[in-house]
């Protein structure tokens, strides 16, 4: 439940212990009280007592009575009670969503917490901010100086690398006035209220909880009142504490109630007369949204669990490292990749939700490999349809009836461990959305439309780190009414906004290519038919009537692609423009990138659109992540266009040839079969090879091609089963290369039993550790909390049982003080573990006597190949773009 605690407002002068300045903690506490003299609570207390004795209606005690040092400790004890689920639930939610929350807090900002307590909760967020490298000043506001000293001692100077911690000694009102100071007002800031009061217990549970709460925390207010007055005015045995639910105002109120007549300063307070101690307002989701709208604030995320809502409220202007426009497959893939980097990311889409019907349906081998690298393959395999065979049907010249002419595998079986699947685009989007929702990674902002775009450092306080200013509007899903507007200031932007890209149009990026005057209709049905191949992909040709393609779908659906040849008017309306690609994929000072259908439009006949679109952003975002987090120079971003534009051009070429083949009335469909065979590697995605560039070493900078005869730099590395040295389990090599932003150096040592091989491996390990760039990339980045940027994996060619893991150089079994040895960095190419094992060296064309080094980028494409003696060349490779 979203709660706001409101105490009775009384005008009092402050009286508090003057802070000392003889410690580092004390030096970090700012006294912001409006009156530095002693608090004059006595006068306010006496006014409250007179009001209780003489006035009708509700009287209130001063709110500051509750929040002395003892009262704060009482309340802290309450939060540790097992029955007080709110704090433990809030901590659990903060642990789960800390990075998502932290992403909305930009570097250079102030983080002000209203009522800091003992930092149990805020420390979770501070640690996440520090891991993200956010330069943030945290201010803990509290009205107990001793408590500020105690809590700030838990985060002394030097505790964090990027976060500085300060105390604000004063009340909420003091804090509000302090925030208005000119030197404070100009700074970006985030206000936090992570506290909670009474939980929403069941009626049967409430009395026991309230009794413990009231006897300690609430009654301490009367003890404090006696201290202020200087005598025992309030006899605690004569007073009860009563909790009342105010349904009309939606608040839970706590009162002091005398059991019998009480005489205070000669005045009588009758039994049952209520003196308000504290009022806790409860807000449901509707109330919360209304309050934020009225305040001009925007809710950027919330998590509901039973009756608890964790809300993060931010101001109408925001900075973000990466803005993604469009939450289709390309945009969602970009967000999934971005979630693995310590950077802030926002993704917006003008639609109200994901795709529900139609659109793409083919998922090829490389896309399945990518999904597997994110741990997302299982839902695709469970829900999708395996596309194993392709059947070709054509007319029998004697009977005039169509008949099956040929049945072939959909793709060659040696391209990948995965074949191809058929699954609707909406299902793919849901899998990616579910992944993003895990641990609060990134939330899609639906019903949010980009309206304006300006480029230049003047857009945000003269800071050219965020040169892109994108004006967006949030609309209601019911009637498209604008609810609010904001400006998003971004470092980089990816336009995944479809074939009719708003971004591409705004930037006036011309499209190149020509249109294919080919018209096809698409329909999804559940057919009732005796057609024998209805659950297989088919190409059916019928002279004079055009062609039909079928594709089986999930839930007994079948998609039909029907060539339209007779309706000229319809042809004019739905012509298939299949050979268009932008002149440039990178625009606006190399800050804006086009991806997916915004970068290439084509026909759906080869099932390429969704695959190539997701592979575009899979190629791009790890590069952006490396630049934004400071690991690599921005020059590497040029490789996005040099690598993906040729893919788009090849796609246009293949699409044109395939469309032509489908529309021919050739006998036995030889032409279609030939085209699919010629382009099998490209269509599957696994044979896409990037040309030499800064991230793909040229022949001169890479080693001897003979070291690995069957592979080449620029390719995605093929996968063969390997055997884990520690436990003997067999695993495909690609499964140990997950998509988490890490580079991998695969060390093929050869057979360690043969002369000189062990010595060569030991020499490599020593040389590796002495190279500056390699050592920098390989060291564990404590601020990232996700291991090193460069991981070394050993694949030896010896019988597994002949090698002792801990005898190997420690680089292949690093030790962690908390977790011990790492058992997942050494593997054997041993044929004793099944019919498919022991084939890696032969498959890669690597000599077991010589071995080699293979460097894989975070996207599993090979970047450099060399011998174990060429460590200097590998170090030079990283030196060209590394930022140390």
UniProtKB/TrEMBL annotation:
Domain Phenol hydroxylase-like C-terminal dimerisation intervals:
688-882
Pfam families from the UniProt entry:
FAD_binding_3, Methyltransf_33, Phe_hydrox_dim
Q: Where is the FAD-binding domain?
A: 320-587, 590-653
Is Oxidoreductase among this UniProt entry's keywords? yes
Would I find Glycoprotein among this entry's keywords? no
Name the SUPFAM superfamilies for this protein: FAD-linked reductases, C-terminal domain (SSF54373), FAD/NAD(P)-binding domain (SSF51905), Thioredoxin-like (SSF52833)
Top-rank taxon: Eukaryota
Keywords assigned by UniProt, alphabetized: FAD, Flavoprotein, Oxidoreductase
The coiled-coil regions, if any, are none
InterPro entries under this entry? FAD-bd, FAD/NAD-bd_sf, MeTrfase_dom, Phe_hydrox_C_dim_dom, PHOX_C_sf, RIFMO-like, SAM-dependent_MTases_sf, SAM_MeTrfase_EasF-type_put
TM helices/strands, residue ranges: none
> What residue stretches are annotated with the Histidine-specific methyltransferase SAM-dependent domain?
58-213, 217-300
Q: Which Gene3D superfamilies match?
A: 3.40.30.20, D-Amino Acid Oxidase, subunit A, domain 2, FAD/NAD(P)-binding domain, Vaccinia Virus protein VP39
Which molecular function GO terms apply here? FAD binding; oxidoreductase activity, acting on paired donors, with incorporation or reduction of molecular oxygen, NAD(P)H as one donor, and incorporation of one atom of oxygen
- Family of this protein: Belongs to the PheA/TfdB FAD monooxygenase family.
Its recorded name reads FAD-binding domain-containing protein
Q: Which organism encodes this protein?
A: Aspergillus thermomutatus (Neosartorya pseudofischeri)
